[in-house]
Amino acid sequence: HGTAKVNQKGHLEIGSVDTIKLAEEFGTPLYVYDVALIRERARSFKETFETLGVNAQVAYASKAFSTVAMVQLAAEEGLSLDVVSGGELYTALAAGFPAGKIHFHGNNKSLQELDMAIEAGIGCVVVDNFDELEMLVELCSSTGKSVNVLLRVTPGIEAHTHDYILTGQEDSKFGFGLENGQADKALLEAMNSGSVRLLGLHCHIGSQIFETTGFLLAARKIYAKLNEWKKLYGFEPKVLNLGGGFGIRYTEEDNPIPASRYVVAIIEEVREQADQYGMVVPEIWIEPGRSLVGDAGTTLYRTGSRKEVPDIRQYLAVDGGMSDNIRPALYQAKYEAVLAGRVLAKPEETVAIAGKCCESGDMLIWDIPLPKAEKADILAVFCTGAYGYSMANNYNRIPRPAVVFVENGEAKLVVKRETFEDMVRLDLPLKERVKSK
Ligand code: LLP
């Protein structure tokens, strides 16, 4: 995984920093990010567009992992930024991210959030529904400002890993149906609004996708519609955003194609479609989240108690769980792990890695072969960089872990560990505490 290596001591090293030292210095659980790997992923996306000579924006979908430092890293790498809430927008602005490269998503943006976005002068709002379009038009006329918009359409394709489904009637909470008249109506409203500037269309067909087929089908369906619109209204998009969703390898069961191959396939298809209908090739935007940061993140835990269910299973508990990684409980997501202090030692037992939350479903990995773990050994779980910290929670009032960035032998704390005080920070007492004598 990335710059992860085994050092002379047999310890797992990331970004040339010994993870055992990281655990000692920053405590556990700890999210460790391999910064060089994030940079490499970002550059590979950008270079693919540059090599093929396409005007593009690669927007990091910050829902995968949004913190001030991560947003600043995205800025350093020349990425644009996809935000989906006032909180993510606030994070981006607090990090000093160039507002003109922020794209605002979401199916229920509030008036306040839209106002904040327009006030900040963000790059575009991805309009999700008629209520939002109406609010935007009103905001623009009352403030005298204008805003770029993309219309999010649902092309009736849902893709996950190796499967894609043609859903026909677009049953999703997101976007304007492409084939049920909604997109047509939204197009006319936006074109005739006299305030919003319609740049083009957006679609996102799913996440953790291993094949290009779904993207190509979506592009074809969109172009069939664009062809109608060109003839009827003379509309041609300046921008086509095909979303994110490029899959990564969590375990050896996963075999995604390299991320740049999706981009090449998308570019070729869009060029072919535009050509076929005599249209100018638009700017192509994408929004990868997981594929930029997923395998760059590793979580370090300390092992704790064991429980053996005779003849059935050996449970090995760690000092985190569904509070820092809810994906196994929520999606039956699978992960790989090693003992960070003895990476090359032979497996001696098969254990089930349990979290510490009061819930039976709080399991991180079912049945993984490992060397015999002592108490307080460091377990490193790989590929936790996307939707790990961002979906972390305080279930059982467990403080959220710290986050460190490692690069070139240096470790930098970028999110502090929460404390017990943080757990009661927003609580208001029913009565002042009575001190006992
Ligand atoms: N663009 C839009 C409009 C999206 O809805 C998403 C993800 C992305 C981009 C980024 O997708 P990515 O490249 O990261 O696959 N919590 C789930 C994933 C939810 C994804 C939601 N939308 C998980 O942990 O697997």
From TrEMBL:
Class of enzymatic activity (EC top level): lyase
Domain (Orn/DAP/Arg decarboxylase 2 C-terminal) ranges: 31-385
Catalytic activity: meso-2,6-diaminopimelate + H(+) = L-lysine + CO2
N6-(pyridoxal phosphate)lysine found at: 63
GO biological process, alphabetically ordered: lysine biosynthetic process via diaminopimelate
EC numbers on record: 4.1.1.20
Pathways per UniProt: Amino-acid biosynthesis; L-lysine biosynthesis via DAP pathway; L-lysine from DL-2,6-diaminopimelate: step 1/1
Cofactors that this protein relies on: pyridoxal 5'-phosphate
UniProt entry keywords in alphabetical sequence: Amino-acid biosynthesis, Decarboxylase, Lyase, Lysine biosynthesis, Pyridoxal phosphate
Binding site for substrate: 290, 327, 331, 359, 387
Domain Orn/DAP/Arg decarboxylase 2 N-terminal: 37-293
Positions of the catalytic residues: 358 (proton donor)
Binding-site residues for pyridoxal 5'-phosphate, renumbered to this chain: 245, 287-290, 387
Domain of life the protein comes from: Bacteria
UniProt-listed Pfam families: Orn_Arg_deC_N, Orn_DAP_Arg_deC
CDD domains xref list: PLPDE_III_DapDC
A GO term, aspect molecular function: diaminopimelate decarboxylase activity
Quaternary organization: Homodimer.
Function: Specifically catalyzes the decarboxylation of meso-diaminopimelate (meso-DAP) to L-lysine.
NCBIfam families per the UniProt record, alphabetical: lysA
Family (UniProt): Belongs to the Orn/Lys/Arg decarboxylase class-II family. LysA subfamily.
Annotated protein name in UniProt: Diaminopimelate decarboxylase
Upper lineage: Bacteria, Bacillati, Bacillota, Bacilli, Bacillales
Gene: lysA
